[in-house]
Write a structure and sequence with these properties.
single chain, Aldehyde Dehydrogenase, Chain A, domain 1, Aldehyde Dehydrogenase, Chain A, domain 2, 7-stranded mixed sheet, 5-stranded parallel sheet, 20 strands, Ald_DH_N, oxidoreductase, ALDH7A1-like, NAD
């Protein structure tokens, strides 16, 4: 069953169509059209921001604890629809159903966390340096937030933006990925049913070019106060440049080339399990997916042998079953992965499956679950012998491929791990606490794991990266409140006269020449 989806703009649900249609297909069964998406032109996002500006003023007047109750209701509605929404996610982007359930649970966890923040948007009472005067600070909503998200986590990652932004009294223009349009629309419906007015949450479907042009226009109009972007580092850099022209600091959650260091004292079976999940789960299509394995030379051969065995034994295929991973998200990602496979060089050793490339009847994979010809299924690839100056080592791959290189000491491993210049997630496997702390102090990533995978952040920890992976902004937990609020200070003087700071301040003069007398121990 397919649906036709349009943008939803303003309280009346108006739309601005460009005449272009995008077919959101099930990547595990390409003949299954999930939704026909009517794309808007640049004027769609610009109009949505204008409507959101007017709606935000009224939404901000709703007391924060009441907005918290809306978030609570959203969590319960999502919980009641958990299985249905998860099945839709699996159908639309090919994510294994078990992972889709985890993604939807993350929305519930996020709501459970933020519902209480409606009663904890704390400011402070600050003592003044002058009498009869009080100082205060308040958190104020930024205004209109434009949120642009990728489709590999079509509902969980948007919740990181939308829930706190709306809780803090902002209105939102959300531009989800076209290839996850149906999942986005289903999630938006739950917001509206929970009590968020349609003009406060607007959904715009548009291609990348129209989105950028529309965002530029909305910024020029003064109708966007915050931009949240999840996507590639290349596009994130352009978004950062654009917002910088309007003296804004965006929230950028970008790509990663996430390293995992495996020390010579590591539990190898545990390290293999962590590498398998973070490297090839979701077909390597997470921003936190494992990119480079940095393995101590003394255990390299045994570790690679075990990982190769585990990868060859992993089930690939039907995402509704028990597969480690299903298809690539969309044809454009399949095309990109074909280019990445061209980065494999003669000095590399290719492991993990019978061959590389698309899984078909003529290029099968042992133990494949389902019909390989039906979808965008690819062989998992483990590449040994990768050098730190290889393109495969330096660039994000966003697909089911992981490279392996070696190190001799931990300082060298940390230097190698950081070389690509990303800084999202990193992991180390070791049984020595000293290694763990040296790793924490030396590595440049924003999120670290010890004896765990590079993927799998909890909903109440700060999420975000540095370098090519982001601009230092953080999502989730209390830290995201700084993205969607602005500090406002108030000084209230009730002395009945003008008291000037730093000038009309009483002083207490000390006797700086005092020295202890002999009877008290002085000389």
């Amino acid at each position: 069953m397919e649906s036709t989806i349009n943008s939803v703009i303003g309280s009346g649900g108006g739309t601005f169509e460009s005449g272009q249609e995008y077919l959101s297909r099930n990547p595990a069964r390409l003949d299954d059209v999930v939704a026909r998406v009517q794309l808007g032109g640049p004027d769609a996002l610009r109009a949505a921001a204008k409507d959101a500006r007017a709606a935000q003023r009224e939404w901000a007047k709703v007391p924060a604890p009441v907005r918290g109750r809306v978030v609570a209701s959203l969590g319960r509605i999502v919980e009641a629809n958990k299985e249905s929404l998860s099945r839709l996610v699996t159908r639309e982007i090919g994510k294994p159903y078990a992972e889709a359930l985890g993604e939807v649970q993350e929305i519930i966890d996020t709501c459970d966390y933020f519902l209480g923040e409606g009663r904890r948007l704390y400011g402070q009472t600050v003592p003044s340096e002058m009498p009869d005067k009080q100082l205060f600070t308040f958190r104020m909503p930024v205004g209109v937030a434009t949120v642009i998200t990728a489709g590999n986590f079509p509902v969980a990652v948007p919740s990181w933006y939308l829930v706190p932004a709306l809780l803090c009294g902002n209105s939102v223009v959300w531009k989800p990925a076209e290839y996850a349009a149906a999942s986005a629309r289903a999630f938006a419906e739950m917001f509206w049913r929970a009590g968020v007015p349609r003009g406060v949450l607007n959904v715009v479907y548009a291609d990348g070019e129209s989105t950028y042009e529309g965002l530029e226009g909305a910024l020029h109009d003064g109708n966007v106060n915050k931009v949240g972007f999840t996507g590639s580092s290349a596009v994130g850099s352009k978004v950062g440049e654009l917002t910088g022209r309007y003296t804004q600091s965006p929230c950028l959650e970008l790509g990663g080339k996430n390293p995992m260091i495996v020390c010579d004292d590591a539990d190898l079976d545990l390290a293999v399990e962590g590498a398998l999940f973070s490297g090839w789960g979701t077909a390597g299509q997470r921003c936190t997916s494992l990119g480079n394995l940095v393995v101590h030379r003394d255990i390299h051969d045994e570790f690679v042998r075990r990982l190769d065995t585990a990868l060859r034994g992993a089930t690939v295929g039907d995402p509704t079953g028990g597969a480690l991973f299903g298809p690539l998200l969309d044809q454009k990602f399949a095309d990109n992965f074909e280019k990445i496979l061209g980065w494999i060089q003669p000095h590399h050793t290719v492991l993990g499956s019978e061959t590389t490339g698309r899984i078909t009847g003529s290029t099968p994979r042992a133990g494949f679950d389902g019909d390989p010809e039906a979808g965008l299924f690819y062989h998992p690839v483990l590449v040994d012998g990768v050098r730190p100056d290889d393109e495969l080592f330096m660039q994000e791959t966003f697909g089911p491929i992981v490279g392996v290189t070696t190190f001799e000491n931990l300082d060298e491993a940390i230097e190698i791990a950081d070389k690509p210049g990303y800084g999202l997630s990193a992991a180390i496997y070791t049984t020595d606490p000293a290694n763990a702390f040296r790793f924490r102090e030396g590595i440049g990533a924003g999120m670290l794991s010890v004896n765990n995978s590079t993927s799998g952040a909890e909903a109440h920890l700060p999420f975000g990266g540095n370098g090519k992976s982001g601009n230092g902004s953080r999502q989730s937990g209390i830290w995201v409140l700084d993205q969607f609020t602005r500090w406002q200070s108030l000084n209230w003087d009730f002395s009945g006269q003008l008291q000037k700071a730093q000038m009309d301040v009483a002083t207490v003069e000390p006797d700086m020449d005092y020295r202890l007398p002999p009877e008290l121990g002085g000389e």
